[in-house]
Structure formats: C-alpha cells, structure tokens
Design brief:
Blueprint lengths: L18 H9 L14 E3 L3 E2 L3 E6 L5 H14 L12 E6 L6 H6 L7 E3 L12 H15 L2 E7 L13 H18 L2 E7 L13 H5 L2 E7 L5 E8 L7 E13 L5 E9 L12 H17 L13 E3 H11 L8 H17 L3 E4 L2 E4 L5
Parallel strand pairs: 3-7, 3-8, 4-5, 4-6, 6-7
Antiparallel strand pairs: 1-2, 8-9, 9-10, 10-11, 12-14, 13-14
Helix pairs in contact: 4-5, 7-8, 7-9
Amino acid sequence: MSDFDNVTPMRSDPGLLKPKAKELLAAATWAGNFEPSLDRDYLVKGWLDKGTLTVVFGQSNVGKSFFALDLAHHISKGEAWGNRRVNKGNVLYIAAEGGSSFPNRVSALDDPEFWVIAAPVTFAGKASDAGSMVEMVQHLASQTGRFDLIVVDTLSRVMGDGDENTAPDIADLIRNLDVLRRGTGSNIMLIHHSGKDVARGARGHSSLRAAVDTEIELTRDEIGVITAEVTKQRDGPTGYKFAYSLRQIELGRDQDGDPVTTCLVEPIVTGEADRVQISGPALAALDALEALLEDRGEILHDPRYPGTPCVPHKEWMEMCIASGQLSSSDKRETHRRVFNREVETLKRGRSVSVRDGLVWKLEKPQ
C-alpha cells in the first residue's frame, strides 16, 4: 500500500471551500466536454487576433512605423489589407518615438479614423502608465466603442529605466502590457528593432518572443522591396507575407518654397523574376552602367532605397547613346528607343532597378 492510499478528500462539500479554491473549482472543466472553436476573433485574418500581444520588428529604417500606420489605418476603416479580410475596430496609436515627422506621416493617410497619443509613455517599472492608460482608453471607449488595436511605437521608448536585455525587466514590461491588454480587450502591437545579429530576431532578451502571441518580421531586399512575414503565431499558421515599397509623396511647401515629403506604403506583387537572357544592346547598357557606377556611383542613405551605389538614369542613358553601341543608326531618337527597350529587358531580368530618376545594378538571378 502506498502513502497516497490513505489520503482522503478534505472538502467533500464545495460550500466549505475557501474563496480561491471555489474560483479554481469553477474553472475546472471535464476534457470530454470541450468542443472545437472554429471561428477566430480576428482583426486581420491570419495576421492579428483581438486581445493578443503582437511584436513587429525589423532593422532601423526598414519602415516599421509606416507599416504599423498602414495596418492601423486599414483596421480603423475596416478595409481589406494585403488581400486579407479585416474586421473594423477602434485603434489607438501611441507614438512614443514618432518625433516631429509623425504628424506628417498621419496626415498623408486618406481620411484617417484612429486616435494618436504623441507623448512620453512608460510601461515598465514603478512609474508605469499602464493603469492610467487603461483608464483613459476605457473613457474613450465609453464614447466611441471598444478599442481593438493599440500600437506601442517603440519598445525602447516605453521601457523607462528598464533594460530590454534583462529577463526581469522584459517580464515587467509584459506584465504591464498584459494590464493594458486585459483592461481594454485590445491587441497590443509592440514595435521593436532587430538585434545586431539579424538571424537571432528581435533585439533584447529572448523571453520577449516567448511571451508574444504573434511575431511579424520586416526585411528589405537589395532593390528596396520590404517584406512583412508572420514568423510566429501561437494558434495558427506562420509564413503569411505582405510585400511593399515606400512611395514618397509631397505634402506641400515650407516657408522657403521647398517640398515637404513623407512616405506611404505601396503594396507590390512579388515573384520570381522572369528568366531573361541578357545579351547584345542590353549587355552593352549594363556594362556602361557598371562603369558609371564605379566612376561616380553614390549611396543614398534613405529607407526607400537600396544601400548600394546608384547614378541618375539620365546620365546612364546619355552615356549609352554616346557610346554608339546600342544601334547602328545615326539618329539619336533611335538610340533612345533602343535604350528604353533594353532597360525594360534588364528590369524584367532583375539586373537593374529604376526608381525616382535613379538606377541601381542588381545581382543577376541564379
């Protein structure tokens, strides 16, 4: 006989249970009574569920805030995003890292319908604003309806005195975000940076990834195409992708008459490049581009562009025409038409990228 054979129930009458024990008893369910839950309470199907914790991360200048704004904008309008179904919901965007350019980014959107807080906020440590934020959101919700998405941009700006590289501080951040999530019923979307080693994911302590329900990684390729990919989904498939570029738009002119610009997310369709044989005039144009890039190529430090040298498209065209290698004709217009035709060939073969009057040389497809 084992020691456990002599154990008898201490409380056969549920009424004799202490309050916490009664609470646990009420939560106990016989496994055979469970039924499958077939419907998901989503904001963006396959990407974001209501009442969960999401992290969006990527390297600096990859366009994380533009991505989050675009997603928030579509959810607040109830408009399809990335060919995925969207359930309309109230949105609050906490722009803790927006800076002076953030209002311009918002004003570029088409009749935005969400709330913005552009002020210092802390969600870690004794000075956490989580409780006050819940109170404020509940007040707004009483007038406008429940909030379904709260964007926190960025993690580093809401850590207060905490250290994102230590487990206790990240655990404290998660506790405070859970206060916000439970108190509002919202999906909390945390914007974050990649670490120095991109292959290791988001920056900081690994306990962050363990705590989140959804993880979305942003990466940018050599021609400036940014891809958002679901890399973790607690109760669903991963691998969903959304590809886009950042399109520069002009908002107006400043006091000196210079253009004031910002960017908008422009979805694109990606796929394998056509297998195009590069030869003849196209090869001559490519050789001329290589020489021009080596001689006067310039790297533009702009999140919309690749981090490789480029030259003005017009200079490339003039060099090719002057070389006389595109056509045997003595007419400039003929050379120009051949050049434009061969540029399209090079673009289809992903040998070059042409944007905003500039041209970059790309690696040839394998």
